[in-house]
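Sequence only, no structure available. Ideas?
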Amino acid sequence: MQDTTRNKLKLAFLLFIAFVPITLATITYRNAVENGGFGSTVNKGNLILPPADITDLTMTDASGSPLFKSFEEVIAEIENDDDYVPQPWLMVFVTAKACDAVCQERIHLLRQMHITLNEDMPRVRRYYLNATGVALPQETADFFRQEFPSMGIAQGTKEKIIENFAKANVILDMENNNYVFFVDPVGNVMMYYEPHHPIQDIKSDLEKLLGLSSLG
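Reply:
I predicted one. Tokens follow.
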């Protein structure tokens, strides 16, 4: 028991050290945006302050099992610090509507942008979150598997997402908009983009965050 406690304390300390750069990245980015430190380009992403939790996106697999746990739940399950595996940043495309041609083009552009991250590409994983509340149509699922095999597919419900993000003072119009969320390696949902945000702005923000972060 003493060894387990010692390992837990060591793990908590190591994760705290790793978590600090993520927190500082968020704070630094916020301050830079507010003070014009990253330039005056319009249509940058919207910061979520305080950040939401990855579980607020209610992402499940096809069987309804949650895909992600909160950071606290992850820590609680780890007995030894050697078992901790740093997670990638997540770029989650969320829609509560059928994925039409415009949606598919947006996903394609996000995939192309991901590729242009070059050596940083493995640090980011893409997801499509179907928030319609019903299973993804087989035709769409087949299309995604063929065209975007590296993109994860998740299920969710717009009602739960809207409710959870309202608690973080983020009002989502999922009847009319789709969104792109950034999630850091410890599960903080800290930025989002609307359809009017160009892909280049999303890439610019992501590159800056990756540069500020030493984890994931």
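The radius of gyration is 18 Å.
Hope that gets you unstuck.
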